[in-house]
Amino acid sequence: MDSDADEIPELVPAGQLSDVSPTAQRVPLTIICGFLGAGKSTLLRRILTERHGYRIAVIMNEFGDTADIEAKSITVDGESITLELANGCLCCSIKDSGAAAIEKLMQKQGAFDHILLEATGLADPGPIAGMFWHNEEYIDPQSIGSESGIVLDGVVCVVDAVFGLKQMEEDHTNNGDDVPGESLRQIAGSDVIILNKVDLVESSTVATIEVALKNVNPIAPIHRTIRAELDLGHILGIEAYGTGRHLSALNDHHGHEHDHDHEHEHEHTGSSSAVPHYVTRGISSLQVSLPPLSATQFTAFDVWIRTILWENRLLELKPLDDSTKNPQSKKSSTDSSIDVLRCKGLLVLTSGEQHVLQGVRSMYEIIPVEDDDQSTRSEFPHAGKVVLIGKGLGEDVRRSLMSNVVGY
Ligand SMILES: Nc1nc2c(ncn2[C@@H]2O[C@H](COP(=O)(O)OP(=O)(O)OP(=O)(O)O)[C@@H](O)[C@H]2O)c(=O)[nH]1
Question: Coiled-coil stretches, from where to where (predicted)?
């Protein structure tokens, strides 16, 4: 055992805790999930061995085949094992990958530039993302005796280009029509998708799987990779839950981010016809463009989104809407077929103000974009947009939104 790594820094005395600035730098946390054998370990191995200059703590449930990484020191502490690596990274194997484990890590090792959490055995990243998103109780600097808290940076999903489509299909089939399975939930809940092993398939297959992925999640950029080789800037420091530049994905009609790290041929099929229909029956997405909203409409949007996220139901169509004549479109009671897993949006007000919508399952927030945040503002046109990802998002959802918020 190494004595340095064993040293536990003194906890901040209670009297000093109030001095910790609420704006103290928070350590970004990225959740990595992915299909079985897709290349998660390959990605982590790269991060743990590359000379990137960041102090990154990687937390896994088990080391797996990354255990042979050359370590400066190994610490064994109860339920956790920590490898301190030559490039400044820390590799931790902790049985419990929840908040308690992270708190322990923060107390023990102090500041990191970034924390990666590999969601092994935690197929659905949604609940853990929700736990770290704005959870001051768990991850507050004061509660962990550190000057830094933790902020959720993003969820990265590694998808296998060889078996990805098959896994999505089987996932769906195994669970029946109404219960989308793990791989679809992983795609739906991710902010960035790494489409790995593209060296093993034809480019037309890559294009087909990209369409399938986009059907489920149109806002996550897709990066094609071989052995998870990509610029770490695409997955770290992306601030997917803020008002930052990465909301530009909302504005990308193809919903596709070109990764120029590799010389791959990109084929845009331009339609989803190549994708089996049942892939999109499980989880799909809905994009709705919104005109600039008055203050009243902005309030109405808050009520509408709250109703669908918290009560899993749509507000009834307003009487003025002609479509209420169609009884099928009149839906107001709880509709268990609706389940929003992730939402994002930009709301533009007639006053010129802009607000970003961020939501993970039933949690959501509407954050004003600062006037000086040109990185977000400049990329958007004058109208807003909302993207919902989940189950049961049909045309009736769009009609309910337009009717109750915009008035037509
Ligand atoms: N040809 C090729 N092989 C790859 C690529 N990425 C990973 N592999 C290989 O695929 C296998 C699985 O990769 P891993 O990184 O272990 O996958 P994983 O997602 O961690 O696997 P589990 O933890 O079992 O879910 C390994 O043998 C890798 O060497 C790639 O882009 N191309």
Answer: none
Determine the atom of ligand 1 nearest the C-alpha atom of 37. 21
Pocket test for ligand 1, best of 35, 36, 41, 226 (most atoms within 8 A of CB): 41
Q: Which CATH class is domain 23-278?
A: alpha beta
ipTM at complex level: 0.98
Name which of 34-38, 107-111, 225-229 the model is least confident about: 107-111
On the question of pLDDT at 310 being above 60, the answer is yes
In this chain, the answer to whether the domains covering 23-278 and 283-406 adopt an identical fold is no
Largest CA distance in the chain: 75
Does residue 196's CB lie within 6 angstroms of at least one atom of ligand 1?
A: yes
Q: Which CATH superfamily is domain 283-406 in?
A: CobW-like, C-terminal domain (3.30.1220.10)
At 58 the three-state DSSP class reads: strand
Give the span between the Cα atoms of 245 and 154, in whole angstroms. Answer: 13
Q: pLDDT tens digits, residue range 372-388?
A: 655 555 455 568 889 99
Residue nearest to atom 11 of ligand 1 (CA): 37
Centre of ligand 1 from the C-alpha of residue 40, in Å: 7
Residue pair 236/152 in contact (Cβ under 8 Å)? The answer is no
Distance (Å) from CA 160 to ligand 1 centroid: 9
Q: Where are the domains of the chain?
A: 23-278, 283-406
